[in-house]
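Pair request: fold both.
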Amino acid sequence: MRRTARSTSHGHDARGKHGASVAAVLAGALAVGALAVGYVAFLLWPRWPAASAAPDAPTLPVTVAGELFVVPPAAIRVPLQRHAGVHERLDLAFLWPSLDAPDLTAKPVPSEDPPAPDRLFVTIAGADATLPPAARLKTIYARYLADEQFASGDGLVILNFRDGTPYQGEDLYVEAAAPERFMPRCSRPCAGATPGTCLYERRIGAADIMVRFPRDWLADWRGVAGGIDRLIAQVRPAGS
C-alpha cells in the first residue's frame, strides 16, 4: 500500500509539471501572437500628416530625394506640404525679382487688364532615373531639333524643335558661352492671350529643381539666370 501511494504521488507530480509546462508554452505563444497582432495593427493604423505650419512661420527644413532644403511656409503652394520633414515633391512660388515668399493674405487689386506675371514657380522632386539637363541636350534633344540655329545677339542661341516631335511648338534657348549653365526650354506664345512659358531645370544631388517663368523675361536672361542662382542658394542650407 505504501508503494502504491508513493507511485500515485509521483504520477500526480509528473502530470502537474507537464501541465505547468504546457501552460507556459501556451502563455508564451499567446504573448507572441499578441505582439504580432499589435505590430500589424500599428502598420495598418492610419497616419495623419503632420500639422501644417503657419504661413508666417520661420523657414522649414525639408528633405526631397535625400537633399536638404529650407523654405518659407508662405512659399509652399500646397497647404498639405507646409510641414518640415521628408517630401516626395515640393511646389513653391517666389515673387520676382525680390525672391520673397508671397503674402498669402494680400488680395488682388481689381483691374480690367490681366496682372503682369511677377512670380517664379518652382518644383523640387526626385530626379529618379532621368538624365541631367546637359546630357539631355546631346542624347535626347539633338534628335528632335531643326537644323537651323539663331543667335539672339545677346549671348543666347535659339534652337527650334521640329514639328511632329514630342517637343513640337517649343524652342531651346542655350547660353552660347556655357550651354550647361543656362538652357531653358520654352513654349511658343499661342494665339490670344496665352503667353509662352519657359522651364529651367537644375540637378542638385538626387533632386531636380524645375523653375517656370514667362518667356518674355528672356529679354533680360542674364538677370533671370542670376536670380535663379540666388534663389537656389537661398533654399539650400550653407554647406549642403
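--- second member of the pair ---
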Amino acid sequence: MQTNKQQRQTWRLIVIFIVFIVIVTSFLYLHHQPFLNQKGEPFYGLQEEPVPEEPLKKEPKETPKVFPQDMVNLAEFIPDIQVDLRYATVNNFTAAKIYDDDTAYLRRGTAEKLKAAQAEFATHGYTIKVWDAYRPPAAQFKLWEKVPDARFVINPHKGYSYHSRGVAVDVTLVDEKGQEVIMPTGFDDFTARANRDYNDLDRETATNTRFLEEIMVKHGFKSIYYEWWHFVDSDKDKYPVYEPE
C-alpha cells in the first residue's frame, strides 16, 4: 500500500497535469478564436490590419503671375467701357484702315488706372469710350505714309508715339443713353478748338472737357495741351515700345 506521502505526490502530479491541460486547451482555443477589428469585422491576428489610405490632396493651382508690363484686352479687362477703335476703320482723318485688329490693348499698369477712372465716371452716369489705345509700330509707319506731316503724325523714323508703348489712350465719354457727351471736337481734329484753351467753348462743353481731364488726371494720367481726348500714363517711361510677336 502507498504511503500517505506517496499519495500526496500522486495527487499533486494529477493536479499539475490537469492545470497544464486547461492552459494548453485555452491557448489553442483563443489562438483560433477571431477578434474584432476597428470595423467590427473578424480578425484572427495572423493577417495585417490594413492601414486606411489618406485621400490624395489636390495640389493648389498656381495663379498665373501678372505684371504691369503685360498687354491686356481692354474690353475684357474693363467690361463696362466702350471701344470704337477708329484706326481699325476708315472713320479717321486718313480715311484709311490703319489697324488690322479692332481690339484695344494697353499695358496692365495703364489699364488698371483706366479701370479706376471708369469706376468713378460710372458713379456720375458716364462710360468711357476708347478711340485709340496701343498702336503697333508698323501702324505708325502706315500713318506716316498716309500723312507725312510731323504736325499731325509722329515720324516713326525718329521715334514712336506713346501709343506704341501701350501707355496712351484716346477717350471721350458717353451718357446713360449711349450718346457721346458734348466735347469741343470729334476725334483727331487738328484745329485750335481741340486744345485746352477753353475760352472759345460754351460753358457746357468746357465743363465736360474739364470733367474728363480732372478724373483721368486724378487716376494717374497726364493730359496734353493740343488734344483734349489724349491721355498718357504718368508712369510712361517705365514701359518700352512694344513689338507684337
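Observation on the second member. The two ends are 121 Å apart (CA to CA).
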